[in-house]
Design brief:
There is one protein chain. The chain is elongated, with a radius of gyration of 18 Å. It is an all-alpha fold. About 80% of the residues lie in helices and about 0% in strands. α1 crosses α2 and α2 packs across α3.
Length: about 100
């Protein structure tokens, strides 16, 4: 989990710095960069945790399916990816 924290903290904060620098046309580093890294890191841990839960639930759901095509790894990957995208987008944008 610490890997997800570090990855999100660095990459997301760097993305914010780059976006602000492009908007202001000069290098702009916010004063509260430590707090932003903390929030992004915690969000990264939460997203990684939820993706793990969703993958386990999707595997259990597909195992109970009677369809032979849903027992393939390709079906698991497609359904897992689209489900994770929906969960992330709905939690960030407040879509129910």
């Amino acid at each position: 989990m610490s890997c997800h924290f570090i990855k999100f903290a660095i990459l997301a904060t760097l993305g914010e710095v780059i976006a602000n620098s492009m908007r202001n046309k000069k290098l702009t580093i916010p004063h509260s960069i430590g707090y932003r890294m903390l929030i992004w890191g915690l969000l990264g841990v939460w997203i990684a945790f939820m993706m793990g839960i969703f993958a386990e639930a999707m595997g259990a759901k597909l195992a109970k399916s009677s369809s032979t095509i849903l027992h393939t790894k390709l079906a698991f990957c497609i359904l897992n990816f689209t489900g994770n995208e929906y969960i992330i987008r709905s939690s960030i944008h407040g879509i129910a």
